[in-house]
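User: Hey, quick favor. My workstation is busy. Could you predict this chain's structure for me?
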Amino acid sequence: MSSITSGNAEQYADSRKLAARGRLNREYTIAETGWFPWVARQLPLKPDDKVLDIGCGPGWFWASVMQDVPENLHLTLADQSSGMVAEAVERCSALPFGSVTGRQADAAALPFEDASFDAVIAMHMLYHLADQLAAIVEMFRVLKPGGVLAVTTNGVGNMREIYALTTVLGSPPVDPGGAAFGYDKAQAIMHAQFGNVTFMQHPARMRITEPEDVFLALTSYPPGDGASETQLAAFREVIEGAFQCGNGVLEVGKETGLFLSTKPV
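Assistant: No problem, here it is.
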């Protein structure tokens, strides 16, 4: 079954499709600290660190956390999509980092020397890969001894109230990212490679008040973006029914977490 975890070349050629999903999370998540600042505050970064962001996307993370990270970081922004790399470099080059470089790269065959980075960041990207272990091994390789790998992903129960609606499109009623690379798998693979792993879950939930934003987010990737008019009409009806049951509101639970592993010295 096609899903958010497949069709990467089309899905992530640029940030347009990703923006619909980003908006849903940005506009309706309720949390004491937003997702990006929360992640940034957990990262054990130091001034002048060399940081690889693999699967950097359009660079939204770094543009949102300048107040939450040390000064003079040297960023290498890498992604399989050259369009994403270009957008991320343009966005981050305008910010006061020590340096910003971009590189189109395959996470399972990183084009960097051994022990090149103080930290490697892989945010919500490992569920796109066919060989997640190979990518973790590569990230371990390019880290300096004592360096830290930070991985974010979703639990399989993430946003279950939303994904339950997608069955009308032929999708299973679970977060596709969490199903492909959820908490248990992240814990197991990272511990197997590093010998240590720490997990933290972002305390958050969603309160969605606009049905159209749910529709746009869930039709921004397969099978929704290829659905027939009949299927789309049925999907709108299911969404409207969920909001009617909630008196105009859709309450949604979140399972979004951060895993940290340190390369032994």
